[in-house]
Amino acid sequence: MAVTLTLTSSFIAVLSPTAAEADNPIIQTIHTADPAPLVHDGRVYLYTGHDEDGSTWFDMREWRVWSSDDMVNWTDHGSPLSIDTFSWARQDAWAGQAVERGGKFYWYVPVVNDATGRMAIGVAVADSPTGPFRDAIGHPLVENGEIDPTVFIDTDGQAYLYWGNPNLWYVKLNADMTSYSGSPTQIPLTTAGFGSRSGNAERPTLYEEGPWVYKRNSLYYMVFAAECCSEHIAYSTAPGPTGPWTYRGTIMPTQGSSFTNHAGIIDYKGGSYFFYHNGALPGGGGFTRSVAVEKFTYNADGTFPTINMTDAGPPQVDLLDPYARQEAETMAWGNGVETEPSGAGGMNVGWIDNGDWIKVEGADFGSGATTFNASVASAGAGGTVELRLGGPTGTQVGTCGVPVTGGWQTWTTISCPVSGAAGTKDLYLRFTGGSGSLFNVDWWRFDRSGSGGDLGELRAVEAGRCLDVPNQSTTDGTQVQIYDCWGGANQQWTHTAAGELSVYSGGSRKCLDAQGSGTANGTKAVIWSCNGGANQRWNVNANGTITNAQSGLCLDVAEYATANGGLVHLWTCHGGTNQQWDLA
């Protein structure tokens, strides 16, 4: 976080500080601080604080979550945790960290205890890395007036919670992750363990705050903010999780316009990444910070190299698929736009003015796109989405008009032809129109030559209800059903050129699948991770039936069910109304 210090929640339209190609800081729609990355299920989840605009102190009221699978395009998941989550808390949503254990996600954060007026450590829990999070115990986990919790689970299963400013403490967490054994133990801050600070008899060592503890090979690392103010990032190592610690030196020297810094380190897809914050965005500084990240390589002996702040950020580790539905709030850079909770679920991009744009890095168009689709809403005058490559004024490959829909959360899908979008390109969605806010964007997707495109809702003729993924499940093997048509993402089906029927359920792309590659009557129709198998290829026929390419069986509503929750399976084609599907 930042020296023991407190901020409001208005969003700002942040502009690129340098060239459009600069992708640090990685979040531009709001000011963020105190990054805590977590790798889970092949994706990086980034937990941050939120500095309120125009603050002159650490005015922070909520925490935010972002995620990426390529280290350059980041998806905004909003705020699943705030001061209000803790009934006993008063203020100061400062630096915390989340960790996964046993399928649950535990987020440890410092807040002011309203009853005592002191900083305390709370713990929130969720079933998903993006929340929503709830207070796990209804009271502080530990309280001694100090801040900046970090949590580490050792290879033997023992979990540790560390925190502190001006001191450094730890406790051994119990297996439930919401209680601990024994009493808080203070780690001695010796100059041998944490470096020497000159000219300060009260604080002779470099340690200031913001610990980050992890294990690499057989060595334990304690990375921390050093010697306020301005801070740099330093580190110590130890043979065990509680020491003894040996000071190793500086990682990131004092740089940038923020007088604090806070580090988080992960390994992901074969690379090592160092997260930090600075004040690089317009209006930025010590109380309006922004999270950035650098890729680095450890020295052969396990020590850190010197890492400097850059505006370029790390290279992209995977290309983005523009033919899969992409959330509009997934971006490498946002110019002038903001985000907000969407009435359709998740977040959407809003407060779009004339000339604003979004950059999506490294979109793999392959042999070429033919159509662009997007979900939009407008209570204003509408406008235009210009599709450009290479820059906000780069080659224009398509133009989509956005109509007035009658409300900022009244969504409709627009489509327009595309020409010249091929190969791997940086995509820019440039927004144009009149004055004031023009429209909102929820998601977008391209179609390629020969693809079936966006089918939308598929309504069972017999029941008059839509093909639906129950509860927006993302679990492989979930059997699909029929349910009242409501326009949710879990009812929006896409038929690809390869024959896949895919859907975005809970924000993840899943394919319609004949369970177990079954070819017998009654084989369940389920969602499954897309794998290109014949049991995931479907023919959408002119007579309204949908047949599985492997078995030739039809998609069938079991027992001619017409009520919500009627299950869908595969059956010998007979052309009955329970095997006929219309576009809703």
Automatic annotation (TrEMBL):
<keyword id="KW-0624">Polysaccharide degradation</keyword>
<keyword id="KW-0378">Hydrolase</keyword>
<dbReference type="InterPro" id="IPR000772">
    <property type="entry name" value="Ricin_B_lectin"/>
</dbReference>
<keyword id="KW-0858">Xylan degradation</keyword>
<dbReference type="InterPro" id="IPR006710">
    <property type="entry name" value="Glyco_hydro_43"/>
</dbReference>
<feature type="domain" description="CBM6">
    <location>
        <begin position="324"/>
        <end position="447"/>
    </location>
</feature>
<keyword id="KW-0119">Carbohydrate metabolism</keyword>
<feature type="site" description="Important for catalytic activity, responsible for pKa modulation of the active site Glu and correct orientation of both the proton donor and substrate">
    <location>
        <position position="148"/>
    </location>
</feature>
<dbReference type="InterPro" id="IPR023296">
    <property type="entry name" value="Glyco_hydro_beta-prop_sf"/>
</dbReference>
<dbReference type="InterPro" id="IPR005084">
    <property type="entry name" value="CBM6"/>
</dbReference>
<dbReference type="InterPro" id="IPR052176">
    <property type="entry name" value="Glycosyl_Hydrlase_43_Enz"/>
</dbReference>
<feature type="signal peptide">
    <location>
        <begin position="1"/>
        <end position="22"/>
    </location>
</feature>
<dbReference type="InterPro" id="IPR008979">
    <property type="entry name" value="Galactose-bd-like_sf"/>
</dbReference>
<dbReference type="Pfam" id="PF04616">
    <property type="entry name" value="Glyco_hydro_43"/>
</dbReference>
<dbReference type="GO" id="GO:0045493">
    <property type="term" value="P:xylan catabolic process"/>
</dbReference>
<keyword id="KW-0732">Signal</keyword>
<dbReference type="Pfam" id="PF00652">
    <property type="entry name" value="Ricin_B_lectin"/>
</dbReference>
<dbReference type="GO" id="GO:0030246">
    <property type="term" value="F:carbohydrate binding"/>
</dbReference>
<feature type="active site" description="Proton acceptor">
    <location>
        <position position="34"/>
    </location>
</feature>
<keyword id="KW-0326">Glycosidase</keyword>
<comment type="similarity">
    <text>Belongs to the glycosyl hydrolase 43 family.</text>
</comment>
<dbReference type="InterPro" id="IPR035992">
    <property type="entry name" value="Ricin_B-like_lectins"/>
</dbReference>
<dbReference type="InterPro" id="IPR006584">
    <property type="entry name" value="Cellulose-bd_IV"/>
</dbReference>
<dbReference type="GO" id="GO:0004553">
    <property type="term" value="F:hydrolase activity, hydrolyzing O-glycosyl compounds"/>
</dbReference>
<protein>
    <submittedName>
        <fullName>Carbohydrate-binding protein</fullName>
    </submittedName>
</protein>
<dbReference type="Pfam" id="PF03422">
    <property type="entry name" value="CBM_6"/>
</dbReference>
<feature type="active site" description="Proton donor">
    <location>
        <position position="209"/>
    </location>
</feature>
